[in-house]
Structure formats: structure tokens, C-alpha cells
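Cross-posted from the bioinformatics board.
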Amino acid sequence: MLLHHRDDAAKGNLVEFRPDIKVLDCSVRDGSLVNNARFEDGFVRAVYDACAAAGVDYMELGYKSSQRVFSVNDYGPWKFCKEDDLRRVIGDSPHALKLSVMADSHRTDYHTDILPKDQSVIDMVRVACYIHQIPGALDLVRDAHDKGYETTLNLMSISRVSERELCDGLEVIAKSPVDVMYLVDSFGSLYPETTRDLAMGYLEIMKSAGKEVGIHAHNNQQLAFANTIQALTIGVSYLDATIYGLGRGAGNCPMELLLGFLRNPKFDIRPILNCITNAFLPLRTTTEWGYDIPYMITGQFNEHPREAIKFLESESTDYLGFYKAMEDF
Amino acid sequence: MLLHHRDDAAKGNLVEFRPDIKVLDCSVRDGSLVNNARFEDGFVRAVYDACAAAGVDYMELGYKSSQRVFSVNDYGPWKFCKEDDLRRVIGDSPHALKLSVMADSHRTDYHTDILPKDQSVIDMVRVACYIHQIPGALDLVRDAHDKGYETTLNLMSISRVSERELCDGLEVIAKSPVDVMYLVDSFGSLYPETTRDLAMGYLEIMKSAGKEVGIHAHNNQQLAFANTIQALTIGVSYLDATIYGLGRGAGNCPMELLLGFLRNPKFDIRPILNCITNAFLPLRTTTEWGYDIPYMITGQFNEHPREAIKFLESESTDYLGFYKAMEDF
């Protein structure tokens, strides 16, 4: 018979579900990179309600950014995630799903801006950093951990880091109090094969330290969903997704695809579909994101999407010219 | 170190190339399902020139359909692929890449309409059929084979066929003179894991009979490219793709993603990018295809995309209503 060729590394199967799987919606947070965090309260509330009804485990509301680095005049409230703004939209009462914020390790005044957990509606602080920022990021992790939060470390741009440096980084992170270590495909340049390799490395190091591994994928090569399910198949358990794939550049792993794949009956795709119709189709008329040829090209070249964003803003469709420019970049 | 977790079943690696890989462009053929084969000559010629310059191995020009079944008044020339139409666009001189046509097993007058190879510009006849049509399809394969053509068998809708029946089918096909057996994901419902299982089964049976295996994927769940590279990783060697993902419903594996992945220096993505700018962006203003929520839903339900096509034609955006309708379908 045909169906006996399972990958030896697979955890679980296609019919049962793994109770360790957690889904995190980062529509508003990653979307904040598209529109400078200028989402209306009603939109954020619509995402919150949809995620709560869909059984999503976490919703990320935005960045916890320093007002010394970023001006409140240039960004909407989801760039700073002040407690009052969060409570205005989410309410004070016990919330239906856990809330997270992202803190860029070197652009967050965490000693003052991250309150003790019992004074905040936030449940989890996700710390983003580059390889050379790990020590500072771990100081932020420790601060948030000591204040009572769940914590993750999201190490960015790993597709341009040497394997040696990455391993050294993971070994250091494994000794920290962080709960979840994220595999982040910042440029959408990973293939399922490379995702599998990397995820197995992350899992080996993190599982033996009692930590979970997550994945945050970008869709430059239409592989965000494929890479996410490749990673989960071999044991990654925290899965980032955004409704309708919202996110910077080519966007992220679409929540609707992910919930359609997961088999835990607590997940329900229906509220997400409704939210797409009512909140995301209107957003689409003013805001652009998603797979497009220039983002594919930066993904293929393992480059930051910023050049593609610039090219698209120019309204040129000279894809060959852009490709040649990236060859010489 | 991290990168030592290769799938044991992998053939080749991410740096070298496999000389057995053949790329087949079916933009015009699968695209003919979108617009009733009404492509202008200039468009077909642009695809041909781009594929030739890009090192693509085969280009499929359309269907070889019976004029008793389909009226020439209802369809453009690529529904019938008459020799004169092909020569008008491609020319009589030796062509730069091999040409194929698709023949639906029970809607082709192959005894009369498929000429002996030495009277045709066509190099390969690809026979499409459902599981219950295999005997008739193999008669067509034998006819084309005896006339001097390369042949493939593209068995459709296998995601709704029992494993027992599928194995029986493959065993029968393995005894025929067909050169290449295609794994076809008609509904875009396969995941990389299921693609891997099925491809290994196809390969086991076909390789021992001296045949190659191909893959034709649809993009309902943004997995057409992922499933294609999953299949090729374990030994599938004929890869279908379409420029800009053109094709019925959610479309196909995008050629530009595939050529960006392949490492054989004979492949060149640049002419494809140019062709997107010059021929596909204009087509896009009049013709719709590609990933969309209704196609995702039929993919998740393992259904033919026809209900999604109908829903999109109605211009409704009530995705939840469509989902519920498919639940009760």
C-alpha cells in the first residue's frame, strides 16, 4: 500500500491532534509594520473577538516600543501598547485568550514600560533581537520573566547567520529563563527542507532545556504555511499566523490555512472567515500586503523586503529590472 | 551542528542539481480552463519565447479535444490544437523546446486527430483521465506511443480514490508503454506529507517499470510550490508549472518560484519575469485566477473548485456562508 512512508521524525499524525500546539495571532503586531500601527480600535477588537471565538491561544497586540526612539506622532497606539490603550479595546475583565506584545530588545524601555504582570492585561512578552543582541535581549527576557510574564525569544534574520554563531546563540538562550524559542524566517527565504533542518536543531537544544520551540514564517515564496506545518510536524508547538496573511511585505502564514489544517476541535475557522469578510476585505482597499513578485525576488536572494517595498511604492512593474538590481545589491 | 537532519528519502541536495529534472510549462493549457482557450496568438508566442529562453523543457499548448464534443464556436484554438494553429504561432522550423498537448481520454478523437509524429510539431501527448477511465486512457497512450510520441498519464482526482483502487490503477499503468506517470492534485487538497507518501508510492511502482514520475499541483492551500518541491526532493522528476501561477481556480505551481529553486544553470528566471510584466499583468486585467478564500475552502474540503468558481462569479464575499454551504455539500 502507499501510505506507509511517514517521515521518521514526525510527531503525531494527520488525524489526531497534539495538545501541545499553541496558535498565536500576530495580525495586528505584524500588520503594524505595514501601516505604522494605525489600526482603528474597531479593527483590533474584531481580530480579538474572532481569535477568541476561533480558539486561538494568544493574540499579539503590537509592539512595546520606546517613546524615546519612536514618536507617538508618527505611529498609532499599537506601536507602544500602553496599558490604557489595551484596556480600552480589550476591556478589564478576564480575557478570552492570552495577550502578548513584542519588544525589540534594544528599542524598549522595559525597566519602566513593562509593568509587573499583576498590573497588566498582558500575559506574554515576546522579545525580538538579532544575533549580536542576544545578551541584551536576555536581560529583557529576565526582566519580563521576573515580573511574572511568559516569555519568548524571536531571533531574527537567521538565514544570514553562520551555523556556528547560531548554535552558540541557541546554547546561550537555552540557559536563560525564556519559555519559548522562535524559529523566525525574517526574509521568507527558507524552504521546507531548511526549515526542517533548523527546527530539528532548535528542538534538540531547547527541548533538553525544558523549553518549547515556535515558528514565525513569511510568505515571500508562498511557503509560510508549508514551512509552518513542516515545523509543527517534527515537534515545533508555537505557531504564528495572521488573518488573511496580513503582515509586512509578503505577509505571514495565513490563519485560515493553519486552522483548516489543525485537528484540535477547539479550533474553529468560521469566526476567522467572518472576520476576513467584515474587517480584512475593507482593510485591503487601503492597505497592501501579500505575495507579489518583488517580495519573491528578495526572498530568493535572502534579502530584507525593504527594497521590494520601495520598488512597489514606485509603482514600477519592471520585475526584470528589479531582479537585476538585486543581483548587484 | 544544525544542518545534519536530512530526510533519508531525499535525492540530491540544495546545492547541486539533478539532471533528470524536466520542467513543463502548462500556462496556456491550464489557463485554457479559465478563458475557454481564447488566448491571442501573441500571448501564446510570448509564453513560448519566454519558456524557450528560460530553459524550460516542455511547453503544453492546449487540449486535443474532439470537435464532436466541443464546438469550435465556444472555444479558442487551444482547445483543439490543430496542426495549422500550432504552426502559425510556433513556426515550422525546429523548435527550441518540446511541445505537448493534453488529451482527455474520453473526449479526444485520437485515431484521427493525433497525426503520426513525423507529420506534427507535437512531441508529447499527455493523457488525462479519472480512475475508472484507465483502460480507455491506456488505449490512447498506446495509440500515441505507436505514432511516435512521448506520453504521460495524468490520473486526476486521486484525493478521492481509495488507496486500494489507486494501487491497482498504478500497477496496470506500470505495464503500459507510458513514459511518465503524473501525480495530480486536482483539488489542491494535498499537504506536503500526503504528497510525500503518494509520491513515494508512485515512484516505487513506476521506477521499477522504468518510468518517470511527474507532479501537477494546484494552489488552493498555497501549497502548489511546496508540494512540487517536496515531490522532487524524493525523486519526482517531471515538474509542471505555469507562469505567474496561471490556471483554473487557485492556479498552479508558479514557474518563477520553481525556477528560483532549481539549481541547474540551464534554467533562467529572467525571461519569465519579463514575460510576467509584458504578457501576464495585461492578462490579469481581464482574467481572474489565483489563491482566494473560496478556493482554499474547496481545497480544505477536498472538493472540485467548481463551487468556488460559481461563488466568485456571484461576487459575494460571504465566506462563512460559502463554508457552511460546503459543509453541507
